[in-house]
Amino acid sequence: MDKMLKRWLWRLFLLLVGLALMYHAWILGQIAYWNHYNPSSSAFMRARLDLLREKDRAAVLRMQWVSYELISPNLKRAVIAAEDGKFLQHEGFDFEAIQRAYEKNLEKGRLVAGGSTISQQLAKNLFLSGEKTPWRKLQEVIITFMLENVMPKRRILEIYLNVIEWGDGVFGAEAAMRHYYGASAASATTEQAARLAAIVPNPRFYDRNRTTPGLRKKTAIILRRMPSAQIP
After folding, report:
1. For the chain, first and last CA: distance in Å?
2. How many domains does the chain have?
3. 19 and 92 fall within a common domain
4. How would residue 112 be classed by pLDDT, with cut points 50, 70 and 90?
5. Could you give the CA distance from residue 17 to residue 142 in angstroms, rounded to a whole number?
6. Tens digit of each residue's pLDDT (9 = 90 or more) over 9-40
7. Average pLDDT in the 157-165 region?
8. Comparing C-alpha atoms, which of 196, 188, 201, 203 is closest to residue 219?
9. Do 212 and 93 contact (CB within 8 A), yes or no?
């Protein structure tokens, strides 16, 4: 009986490993495809739409894909300055930023800072749920590694700027500029770009509270950082 149980446990283990490999092979295939074709949605966008439709069955997301060339360099520079200053230097993970975030959270006794890079954020947005579990974090690491090894930095940033949330049901740079300024992503000024970048960490809150002192302070910090931000 013990031998039979061990045999079945071993088979179950191999089955689970096989399923995990198939799942990650599918993800790798998706990433390779999206290196040349634009994703029409993301896991996060679908989750947000489901929540919006619980309140309004006719709800739709505002999102319009624009190519890298049609996004203002100001906005690219502002987002890198705000979210991932070493975007062009690291290979998916900024360990110094992770350490700083850990120390700050430890000091405050709560989660007040994150050390995720743009690549990590894109991995989460494209494929993962909002659950915070060790398994999901491991998935994020694996997917980030795939993104960095399949896509050039320029493509990672292009997709990121087109799929991140910028307001309640507002996704991507073009929809964000239309929503807040009635203009195109190509026309974003330095100040507009810095303010949009400041909105990224908490977009639904800042969509409802557009004149908070905290938002103005963050915008000013990003404006100071922008001249040194490098873009692909």
Report:
1. 61
2. 2
3. no
4. very low
5. 15
6. 777 778 887 888 898 889 999 999 999 999 99
7. 98
8. 196
9. no
Q: Which CATH number fits the domain that encloses residue 107?
A: 1.10.3810.10
Task: Output the six-digit token pair for 12.
Answer: 């179950």
**Are 218 and 165 in the same domain?**
yes
- Which pair of tokens denotes residue 46? 């679908």
**Amino acid in the structure at residue 69:** E
Q: Do residues 195 and 137 both lie within one domain?
A: yes
DSSP assignment string, the chain: -HHHHHHHHHHHHHHHHHHHHHHHHHHHHHHHHHTTS--S--HHHHHHHHHHHHH-TT---EE----GGGS-HHHHHHHHHHH-TTTTTSSS--HHHHHHHHHHHHHHTS-------HHHHHHHHHH--S---HHHHHHHHHHHHHHHHHS-HHHHHHHHHHHSEEETTEESHHHHHHHHHSS-GGG--HHHHHHHHHHTTSHHHHHH-TT-HHHHHHHHHHHHHGGG----
> What is the sign of the dihedral through the CA atoms of 228, 88, 202 and 190?
positive
223-232 pLDDT per residue, tens:
999 999 999 9
Burial class (CB in 10 A: 0-12, 13-18, 19+), 208: exposed
Rounded to 5 degrees, what angle do the CA atoms 12, 16, 19 make? 135
pLDDT at site 23 = 87
Whole-prediction pTM: 0.90
Q: Are residues 6 and 74 in the same domain?
A: no
| Token representation of residue 57 | 């069955």
Domain membership of residue 27 as a residue range: 1-37
Type of residue at 166: W
